[in-house]
Amino acid sequence: MSLLISFKGSRACGGPSRCRLAAIIVGYLTLFVTLAAVFGHFSMRLALDTDEPYYLLGGTLWARGKTIYRDFFYPQMPLTAIAFGTWQKIFGYGWVSGRRMCAVVSALIGLLVFHDIRREAGVRSGIIGLIFYCLSLDVLDWMGRLKSYGLTGLFCMLGLTALTHRKLSARRVCAAGLLTALAVAARLMALPLLGVLFLALLLHPDARYSRVRYTLFAAGGAVVGLLPVAYYWLRAPDAFMFNNLRYHAIRDGGQSLIADWAQKYGLMTQIIGGPRGDAQLTLLVPLSLAGLVVFARWGRQSIAYPLSVLALFVVSVLPTPTWNQYFSVLFPPAIVCCGLMFSRSREVVQWALLVPYAFVFWYSFESIQGSPTAAGGVVTLDKIGHALDEVTQADDRVAARTPQFLATTKREFTVCSFNVFAFGDWHKQLGSERDERYHLCTDESLAKNVISGTVRAFVASSDTELGLPQKFPTLGWTRHHLDVADIWVAPNHH
Predict the structure, then answer these.
(1) Residue 140 confidence (pLDDT)
(2) Which of 152, 228, 391, 442 has its CA 20 to 30 A from that of 357?
(3) Residues 6+ apart with CB under 8 A from 173
(4) 394, exposed or middle or buried, with CB in 10 Å at 0-12, 13-18, 19+?
């Protein structure tokens, strides 16, 4: 209600006055704080995903001066590590800090969903779109985790916001190119969005007399946005290509990035008839793709939204294997697309669609909940990192087979600890030279590293991990028992 009052108050001010601007700012700040609180609540309670430690620790290593790809294995584009590392430098290291960043990113995306709908259809339609966003299970489930989806979705929406303005300008077009390229710099799967950028620019009604000029400005912005990618590719071209392409092709025993069509067919069957949040995807995607026809007739500046949904859907299906989480990035543009399409029906259709959407949320919500006090919760993991600092000295090197235990520690950790991705048999086809070059460590090499004397503390999640807990007592190591792990400390310590 206060949000409506803020934006209605901006109308009462009349004209581009300070009063109107102040009312709009208050409205957006209120909305952002509310969204940050909502997503912060859910983000802290999400169960830990297997990939999260690698992305968080990648940011930690970057913040400590390591070079992505050259100095450690990182299976994504560089911007995610840079963003996580920068956040931790400013707001502190660890899981709680990282998940708070995810909440802020999710809130910013929600703010853009509201803004883009409000800009064309009014405040009430914007609020309805925001409700859809907050009830999207894939958004709650994956944007709140320390993965690449949040940043990719944020830059995607920022680029669309600039591109779909009714009045184009060189600055807006350049910003659209820059922001879309940053989405690619966060996750390679966003690469088709660059094609969407230029196609939507050609179709934009305000670009009809300046298409060449605007295309050049968009290309210039995209080049600037891809500079971080170029930098890290030049620093380690072979490792860059392996981390971002080759690894993803061979990690599940295959040889191609696009294969296993039976698995894709099975996933699509599950999405269409699945009982969980897949029903929301099944509802949104066809409706938003109808925008290709609707916006071709009116509001062609908005055609970038359905084009983005189409591009993101196709590119999410193609990788091997295909996972449901890939589709989370397309939810924000799909919601905006539907909000704009149905704004002319006085929101009746939007409310009608919201009923089944909310029912799916209510029916399936428990499947994505975790607990901050459960074993492996982010609060518990931060406590382990602090405990590790208490029982070691400042110049000690520490290690763990499961890297989530190392996120909060101030100690240097062996890069071998960072890479549980390499614990499968697929890496054997690479050979020992490339294993070393790409920082791919096996169980045997990690255990040897720990016993060699260069590691002064090891965090074990079980009494049999790598066979080390059985050896430590005979070597004089001291055990410090915690709720979900044990810290083993080498002798000659305080």
Answers:
(1) 92
(2) 152
(3) 162, 163, 201, 214, 217, 218, 221
(4) exposed
> Rounded CA gap, 334 and 307, in Å?
10
How far, in Å, CA of 56 to CA of 159, rounded? 25
User: Using an 8 Å Cβ cutoff, are 41 and 370 in contact?
Assistant: no
Cα–Cα distance between 290 and 338 in angstroms, integer? 9
**pLDDT recorded at residue 259:** 74
Q: How far is the CA of 419 from the CAs of 14, 324, 484, in angstroms?
A: 58, 24, 20
Q: Which residues contact 304 (CB under 8 A, 6 or more apart)?
A: 160, 163, 164, 196, 197, 200
Helix, strand, coil percent values for the chain (each to nearest 5) = 70, 5, 25
CA distance 142 to 106: 10
Q: How many CB atoms lie within 10 A of CB 351?
A: 13
Report d(CA 65, CA 48) in Å as an integer: 26
Neighbours of 86 (CB within 10 A): 14
* Gap between the Cα atoms of 16 and 20, Å rounded: 6
Intervals of the chain under pLDDT 50: 372-375, 494
Q: Please name the residue ranges forming H helices in 344-442.
A: 348-364, 378-390, 415-418, 432-437
Helix (H, G, I), strand (E, B) or coil at 68: strand
The phi, psi pair for 374, rounded to 5°, reads -70, 160
**pTM exceeds 0.90:** yes
- What span, in angstroms and rounded, lies between the C-alpha atoms of 410 and 177? 38
Residues pairing with 479 in the sheet: 488
Cross-strand bridge partners of residue 397:
412
Q: How far apart are CA 95 and CA 145, in angstroms?
A: 10
